[in-house]
Specification:
By secondary structure, this protein is α+β, with helices and mostly antiparallel strands. The chain has helices at residues 6-26, 36-49, 110-131, 150-156, 209-223, 263-284, 303-316, 323-333, 338-348, 378-384, 404-408, 413-435, 437-453; strands at 52-55, 64-70, 74-80, 135-142, 165-172, 176-177, 184-193, 197-198, 232-239, 247-248, 251-260, 287-296, 387-393.
C-alpha cells in the first residue's frame, strides 16, 4: 500500500529493524522488574537512533527514557517489554509446546508493544529533523506492567510532569481505539503470624496462621454479595505455612488483588478487605502484617485524541494480512472454543463473522460492546497527561490474553504487520497533535474537565517503593 503521509514513510524506513527488536525481546522473556536484557536492547536501539538517553528513570533500573527534538510540545510514546510466567511456547506452532528453560513467555505481546512504540518515536524523531518542525519526542521504556505498576511509580516520581500528550497501543485480536475502560487495582500481601505447636499433643498451645488466612478468605467471599458488581477481588496463597499437617502453622501469607471501576472505589474496597484481615487475626489470636505491593489507577479517556487516532486508522485502512497469515491464524483458531471467538466480537459490540481468522476491519469509534475489563498502569499516565491507546490486530480472533497461543503468534506475520501498522497510527496521531495547536489544547481541556470532576489520587502510598529485583548473575 502506498503511504499517503510522510510520517508513514519514516516508519517503513525503519520497520525491519524493529521487527528484529521484537523478535529479540520475544526470545529473552523476563518478568516484572527483571527485564535487564530487554531494557538493554531498547537502550541500545535508542542510542543507535540518536536519542539522548536517560537510564533508570524514577530509580527503576529496568526503565529507560529517550528524547529527541527541541521546543514545541512534548509528545511521549509508552513502551513495555515484560513477560509472564508459565507461558513459554515455541513460535509459529499451533499446539502447546513449551521451550526449555524457565517457562516464561511473551503471552501478552509486550515484545511487540515496546518495539512498535519505539518505532513510532524514531519515525517522529526523523520527521522532526527532516521538516524542522519544533517539537520534542520522548520514548518511555516501561517495565513491570504485569502487576508491577512501574508507570504508577514513574508518574509519582514526576517524570511525566512536563509531557503534553502520551500515546501507546496494545496487541489485540480486533483493531480499534481503546475504549479507555480499565479497573483500578491494588495488590496487597497479608502475612499472618501465630504460634507453631504439635497439632496432636499440644493443639491448645498453637495459634494457626493458616486458619487466619482461611477465615480471611471466607470473610472476603461473603463480602462479594455487598460490593459493586463491577468490582473484582482475587487471591493467591503465597505461603500456606508448610506441608506437615501435624504442625499448627505459625506463619502464612496470602496475596490479594482488589479491583474497582475507579481509584476512589478501589480505596474504599481496600479498607473493607483490611478490616476483614484484622478480624481474622483477632479470631485466631494471630498478628497480621499488611503490605501494599503496587497499585494502578483506572484509565481516563480523552475524546479529542481518540477521534484523532481513529481518523488516522481510517486513513491508513485495516491491517493488510496475507493468505499465509490467515492460514496460521486459522490453525490457532482451531485450538480455541466458539465461546473464545464470540467473546472477542462481543467485547467490541461487533456481529461475529465466520471463517475470519484475522481482523480485516476497524471497529467504529462509537461501537459499544460487553465490558470485559482488566487493569493497566497506563491508567496512571492518563490521569497525569492526555493519553490515547490503540488496540491493533496482531493475532487470531478469539485468542485469550495471557495464553500460550499469543506467545506462539509473537513472531508470526500478523505480529510484524500489526506492529508496523500500530507505529504508523501512533506516529500519525503525534504529528496531528504537533501540527495543530488547537487540537492539543482541546485534548488538554478535555483532560482538565475530567480531572475537575475527580482529581487524581496516587493509588500507591508514599512509603511504598517499587518491588525492585536484583540483577541476575551474568546479565
Amino acid at each position: 500500500m502506498h503511504n499517503s503521509e510522510p510520517i508513514w514513510d519514516h516508519v517503513e524506513a525503519r520497520r525491519k529493524a524493529y521487527e528484529d527488536l521484537s523478535d529479540r525481546i520475544w526470545s529473552m522473556p523476563e518478568l516484572a522488574y527483571t527485564e535487564f536484557r530487554s531494557s538493554a536492547e531498547h537502550t541500545a536501539m535508542l542510542k543507535e537512533e540518536g536519542f539522548a538517553v536517560t537510564e533508570g528513570p524514577a530509580g527503576i533500573p529496568t526503565a529507560v527514557m529517550g528524547e529527541a527534538g527541541s521546543g514545541g510540545p512534548i509528545i511521549a510514546f509508552l513502551g513495555e517489554y515484560d513477560a509472564l510466567p508459565g507461558l513459554s511456547q515455541e513460535a509459529n506452532v499451533a499446539e502447546p509446546k513449551p521451550l526449555p528453560g524457565n517457562g516464561f513467555g511473551h503471552g501478552c505481546g509486550h515484545n511487540m508493544l515496546g518495539s512498535a512504540a519505539l518505532l513510532a518515536a524514531t519515525a517522529m524523531k526523523n520527521y522532526l529533523k527532516e521538516t524542522g518542525q519544533p517539537g520534542t519526542v520522548r520514548y518511555y521504556g516501561c517495565p513491570a506492567e504485569e502487576g508491577g505498576a512501574a508507570k504508577a511509580f514513574m508518574v509519582r516520581a514526576g517524570i511525566f510532569d512536563d509531557v503534553d500528550a502520551a500515546i501507546t497501543w496494545h496487541p489485540a485480536s480486533l483493531t480499534r481505539v481503546d475504549e479507555a475502560l480499565s479497573l483500578a487495582n491494588t495488590r496487597i500481601d497479608f502475612t499472618f503470624t501465630g504460634r507453631a505447636s504439635h497439632a496432636a499433643a499440644a493443639p491448645h498451645l498453637g495459634r494457626s496462621a493458616l486458619d487466619a488466612v482461611e477465615l480471611m478468605n471466607v470473610g472476603v467471599n461473603y463480602m462479594r454479595e455487598h460490593m459493586p458488581s463491577s468490582a473484582r477481588i482475587h487471591y493467591a496463597m503465597i505461603d500456606g505455612g508448610g506441608i506437615a499437617p501435624n504442625v499448627v502453622q505459625g506463619r502464612a501469607k496470602v496475596r490479594y488483588a482488589v479491583r474497582a471501576l475507579d481509584i476512589h472505589g478501589m480505596k474504599a474496597l481496600n479498607e473493607r478487605v483490611i478490616k476483614i484481615a484484622k478480624g481474622a487475626a483477632m479470631m485466631t489470636e494471630t498478628e497480621v502484617e499488611i503490605k501494599i505491593l503496587s497499585a494502578v489507577s483506572n484509565l481516563l479517556g480523552n475524546t479529542p485524541m481518540e477521534e484523532t487516532m481513529f481518523a488516522n486508522m481510517q486513513r491508513l485502512g485495516p491491517v493488510a494480512f496475507d493468505e499465509a497469515d490467515r492460514a496460521f491464524a486459522a490453525e490457532i483458531q482451531a485450538t480455541l472454543s466458539e465461546e473464545d471467538i464470540a467473546s472477542d466480537y462481543n467485547r467490541c459490540g461487533v456481529e461475529p463473522k465466520t471463517d475470519q481468522p484475522l481482523c480485516d476491519f476497524i471497529v467504529p469509534l462509537d461501537q459499544v460492546g460487553e465490558p470485559m475489563i482488566g487493569s493497566t498502569d497506563v491508567g496512571d499516565v492518563s490521569w497525569k497527561v492526555p493519553t490515547v491507546q490503540a488496540r491493533v490486530a496482531t493475532h487470531a480472533i478469539g485468542t485469550p490474553g495471557h495464553s500460550w497461543q499469543i506467545t506462539a503468534q509473537g513472531k508470526a506475520g500478523p505480529a510484524y504487520k500489526g506492529l508496523t501498522w500500530a507505529a504508523k497510527v501512533m506516529a500519525g496521531t503525534a504529528v496531528d497533535l504537533l501540527k495543530d495547536p488547537a487540537l492539543l489544547e482541546q485534548a488538554k481541556a478535555d483532560h482538565q474537565a475530567r480531572l475537575a470532576k475527580k482529581p487524581y489520587l496516587c493509588p500507591i502510598p508514599p512509603e511504598v517503593d517499587p518491588p525492585l529485583q536484583p540483577r541476575p548473575a551474568g546479565v
